[in-house]
UniProtKB/TrEMBL annotation, chain A:
Keywords: DNA-binding. Gene3D superfamilies: lambda repressor-like DNA-binding domains. Signal peptide: none annotated. CDD domains: HTH_XRE (cd00093). It comes from Virgibacillus chiguensis. It holds the Pfam family HTH_3. The lineage of its organism: Bacteria, Bacillati, Bacillota, Bacilli, Bacillales. PROSITE patterns: HTH_CROC1. This is Putative transcriptional regulator. Residues 5-59 form the HTH cro/C1-type domain. Transmembrane segments: none annotated. SUPFAM superfamilies: lambda repressor-like DNA-binding domains.
Automatic annotation (TrEMBL), chain B:
It comes from the Bacteria. The lineage of its organism: Bacteria, Bacillati, Bacillota, Bacilli, Bacillales. This is DUF3278 domain-containing protein. The chain crosses the membrane at residues 21-46, 52-73, 94-113, 119-139. Keywords: Membrane, Transmembrane, Transmembrane helix.
């Protein structure tokens, strides 16, 4: 999950701070999500997915 | 989830910060409940009873200090401070905020205690003001340092 968000963000050319500002979160929150140290709420997941132009599956689904 | 009065008391700054504070408050509540339960057992086994006033004071101060210390040490207060330049700027801000806090604190002390008659009265105003300013500064600096370290580790 972590690397998928970071990859999508870098692909989109955004910094952590820019993404954080766009989804109404803090840079620290984005950093923690990318390092798998925090599980965001569904609202934040949707906001991040929308901002990065990806689906929730693309960013958060993990094959077992 | 946000249909709770607790959100009125939580600082702005994103869901991570709010969720962490709620967790810390819950931890404090569980610890206090356990300690009160032990006091109840102690009261029935050893005929030892805590006064109501003392109990209320203990609960209030414990929850306040536990939450405050965990908040400071968790490094979540300064969520945006990551670069060296930002850190130095924030350090300067901590200095000026501490001085402003000290001035406001001494004015409040001066208003509540009145004009000092001798140097002992003056010391009663100046002493607590200096102490409060020092504590404010130390805790703010610790919080900033912890936040900076945490944010640096999370940087892209």
């Amino acid at each position: 999950m972590a690397n998928k968000i970071k990859l999508a963000r870098v692909e989109k050319g955004l910094t952590q701070a820019q993404l954080a500002q766009r989804v109404n979160a803090t840079r620290q929150t984005i950093g923690l999500i990318e390092k798998s140290k925090y599980n965001p709420s569904l609202n934040l997941c949707i906001a991040i997915a929308n901002e990065l132009g990806k689906s929730l599956d693309d960013l958060f689904w993990e094959e077992s | 989830m946000k249909r709770s009065f607790i959100y009125v008391f939580l600082p702005e700054g994103g869901e991570y910060k709010q969720m962490r504070i709620i967790t810390i408050l819950a931890e404090a509540a569980v610890i206090v409940s356990t300690l009160l339960m032990l006091c109840l057992f102690a009261g029935s086994w050893f005929d030892w009873h805590m006064e109501g006033y003392l109990t209320a004071f203990f609960i209030f101060t414990f929850i306040l200090f536990y939450t405050f210390l965990r908040y400071i040490l968790s490094g979540m207060e300064y969520a945006e401070i990551a670069g060296e330049a930002n850190y130095i700027k924030a350090k300067r801000k901590v200095y000026s905020q501490s001085i402003r806090f000290g001035i406001v604190f001494s004015i409040i002390m001066f208003v509540s205690k009145g004009i000092p008659n001798d140097w002992i009265d003056a010391l009663d105003i100046v002493g607590p003001s200096i102490l409060a300013t020092c504590f404010y500064f130390i805790f703010d600096r610790i919080s900033l340092k912890k936040s900076y370290k945490k944010n640096k580790d999370l940087l892209d």
